[in-house]
Amino acid sequence: MSDRRHDADGSGPGSGHGRRALAARLDWNLIRTYVVVAQELNISRAAERLFVTQPAVSQAIKRLQGQLGYTLIRRRGPRISLTAAGEEVYRIAGGVFADVSSLEMPAGGAAEQIVGRIKLLSVSRVHSARYDRFLAEFHRRHPRVELEIEVMRGHDLLVALRQNTASFGIGLCRVPTRLIERRLIIPQRYALFCGRPHSLYSQAQVDVETLLHEDLVTFTGDQLGDTLSPLTLFRENHGFQGRLAASSSNLEEVCRLIRCGYGIGFLPEDAFRREVEVGDLRRLPPAEGLADVDIHLLWNSERPLRPAEVVFRDELLAAFSGA
């Protein structure tokens, strides 16, 4: 590593003696600060998360770089990027802190019971009775595994997994993505809908030609988890030319805007079947829907899985085998 200092006597960080000495003198509070900086890539936001001042964060990074002997970050004004060494330190540190969370396992019964913590990132409105049954069964079998679920946009979910900040994601990933392993669990078909206030709601006959110039509600940026969106397919396959009336990055808010009559819009059929049944939404042509935007189990391919995570992954995939 070009920016790393080496000791002439062979006791530097690369040697066994050097590694033991480093572990003895390393301040793990500095590592914790660095992990937050690496996640935020912004000193100001990192300071806010840590409840310290910006100069304190900058000084901590400087001290850590001095202890390790190489550069971790590059700064260009407010912008921060990680060096190759910084990426590796972040990967290792993330694994260390994740492992520490499992130390609460008592000595007695450790061999009989899986203990640990799983952080699961998920897109909103994952509608699946099989998924619900799996979660219930998993908790029954492994009551000492703590599960944290955070809902976020599909694109942000992939970024977070690449940054090694969670165990798994339940989200959208239609095309192969660097560092991401994916397994299909819930097939999902998107279709067009309108709400009760919309003029098409009470119209007896509606065909695709009727929809081509309607106002549209869609997802912010016309993107669903780095995949080809229903809007793109609607334009390409049917010649849609309507204007964008409203958008949101949140599926629930997209549904709300459609229900309130802002325009027609795309939603996963199964997730919003109840809204159709109670009359809040009307399903529109084409009858075959618009696009498959399936839900996958996702994880970082370079992140070693802890025992509780291996069990969670394997049992979830088994529950959906043949789905």
From TrEMBL:
**Domain of life here?**
Bacteria
Question: What are the alphabetically sorted keywords of the record?
Answer: DNA-binding, Transcription, Transcription regulation
Q: Which GO terms describe its molecular function?
A: DNA-binding transcription factor activity; transcription cis-regulatory region binding
Taxonomic lineage of the native organism: Bacteria, Pseudomonadati, Pseudomonadota, Gammaproteobacteria, Salinisphaerales
What name does this protein carry?
LysR family transcriptional regulator
Q: Which family does it belong to?
A: Belongs to the LysR transcriptional regulatory family.
Residues annotated as domain HTH lysR-type: 26-83
Q: Which Pfam families match?
A: HTH_1 (PF00126), LysR_substrate (PF03466)
Does the keyword section mention Nucleus? Answer: no
For the keyword DNA-binding, the answer is: yes
| Matching PANTHER family | HTH-TYPE TRANSCRIPTIONAL REGULATOR (PTHR30126), HTH-TYPE TRANSCRIPTIONAL REGULATOR GLTR (PTHR30126:SF40)
State the InterPro entries in the record. LysR_HTH_N, LysR_subst-bd, WH-like_DNA-bd_sf, WH_DNA-bd_sf
